[in-house]
Specification:
- By secondary structure, this protein is mainly alpha-helical.
- The chain has 2 helices and no strands.
- The longest helix has 14 residues.
- The radius of gyration is 10 Å and the shape is elongated.
Amino acid sequence: MPAPKRRHSRARSRKRRTHYKIKLS
């Protein structure tokens, strides 16, 4: 079920934006 998981990722992407930058750095 990728449809419901994608919906969560979008909302979490905003809050996890800082975490993602640190992981990419």
